[in-house]
Design brief:
By secondary structure, the chain is an alpha+beta fold. The protein has helices spanning about 1-20, 25-35, 40-45, 50-90, 110-125, 140, 175-185, 225-240, 290-295, 315-320, 330, 335-340; strands at about 130, 135, 160-165, 165-170, 190-195, 210-220, 245-250, 255-265, 280-290, 305-315. The protein has twelve helices and ten strands. It has a seven-stranded mixed β-sheet with strand order 1-5-6-10-9-8-7. Strands 2-4-3 form a three-stranded antiparallel β-sheet. Strand 7 (about 245-250) and strand 8 form a beta hairpin. The structure holds 3,4-dihydroxyphenylalanine.
Length: about 350
């Protein structure tokens, strides 16, 4: 009688286990059949009233049923856990068939490549690097460079004014005056790379913002031969040993005499071609001997000291060096443009 009950319980439990759909339901079944208050466990208490042999046999049977149910529950639980894990892994899986996001690495802008090279060339000649503000006083940008108010040469350097006497510097030349002020009558040998501004039309060779490298050397007994030798060395280091330079008379209010410096054209070697407009030469910078007025205004005795100065357009040199036809390409940081200047090791 009791034995039959046990068989029924075992069957019912197995059936419920096989129908269970998830681990929660299994836990409920475990509770129902194996908890202390379950019918199966309550049968244990009947053992006391049985005779020894019967007790032994029935006890063993209860244990066997309990073990069987436990095993089935454990088996089924493992199945569910495996399925649940698979489901979780599937949800969290990464679709490696998706193409990776494109990762574009830039390159050093040829403007900076050339600027650094020019600075290195002059550092090698013993120049120091000086600095000055881009928002400059009229006083330094014009007055101390022999360009008083209403001087007609100011017209060539119209710029962005902040107030009547404060403007975005039109050239790096104000650093000449600032350095002379600082050196207070002592020799000077500096270059100054930096941004400059003009109210120019933006086209392939002009931009409202561009950059120059100013050079200034002041000492005793400096003559135009020193200027020529310095610029010749610069041109050969920058453009190659075969390049020649020529000095053409020019005019700047802050130098006397003033020169425009040309290098022989790389395309034709000086014979004349469309690149150099048939002249055989290409202009690269302006310079000259520091005007006695500039020396005087900035605290140097022109009877004792003399000097030379020059201003190099960085973009212009970079354009010539690399054959770049549009100045605006330096400023747009187009990666396709920049990649052409990655140095192959
Ligand atoms: N500041 C001049 C310009 O922007 C360039 C220049 C010419 C600089 C002669 C100089 C110089 O120092 O001596 O056009």
């Amino acid at each position: 009688m009791e034995n039959e009950k046990l068989d029924v319980i075992a069957r019912e439990a197995e059936e419920e286990i096989s129908k269970a759909e998830n681990s929660e339901q299994l836990n409920e079944i475990r509770n129902k059949y194996l908890s202390k208050k379950s019918f199966l466990m309550s049968l244990m208490s009947t053992l006391g009233s049985m005779v020894a042999d019967q007790r032994k046999e029935f006890g063993a049977k209860i244990n066997a049923v309990k073990q069987r149910i436990t095993e089935r529950l454990d088996e089924k639980m493992k199945e569910f856990q495996k399925k649940e894990l698979e489901l979780k892994l599937k949800k969290e899986s990464i679709d490696i068939s998706l193409p990776a996001r494109e990762f574009n690495v830039g390159a050093k802008n040829p403007f900076h490549v050339v600027k650094d090279e020019i600075v290195d060339i002059f550092l090698g000649m013993g120049y120091e690097v000086a600095d000055g503000p881009e928002v400059e006083l009229d006083h330094y940008n014009f007055e101390l460079l022999n360009l008083p108010k209403d001087h007609p040469a100011r017209d060539m350097q119209d710029t962005f004014y902040i107030t009547e006497n404060l403007l975005l510097r039109t050239h790096t030349s104000p650093v000449q005056a600032r350095t002379m002020e600082k050196k207070a009558g002592k020799p000077v040998k500096i270059i100054c790379p930096g941004k400059t501004y003009r109210r120019d039309d933006d086209d392939a060779t002009h931009s409202h913002q561009f950059a120059q490298i100013e050079g200034l050397l002041i000492d005793k007994d400096i003559n135009i031969g020193h200027l020529k030798a310095t610029l010749e060395l610069f041109a050969k280091k920058m453009f190659g040993e075969k390049r020649e330079i020529r000095l053409r008379p020019s005019y700047f209010p802050f130098t006397e005499p003033s020169v425009e410096v040309d290098i022989t054209c790389a395309s034709c070697g000086g014979k004349g071609c469309p690149v150099c407009k048939g002249t055989g030469y290409i202009e690269i910078l302006g310079g000259g001997m520091v005007h006695p007025n500039v020396l005087k205004m900035n605290g140097y005795d022109p009877e004792v000291y003399s000097g030379f100065a020059f201003g190099i357009g960085i973009e212009r040199v970079a354009m010539l060096r690399y054959g770049i036809d549009d100045i605006r390409k330096f400023y747009t940081d187009d990666i396709r443009f920049l990649h052409q200047f990655i140095k192959k090791a």
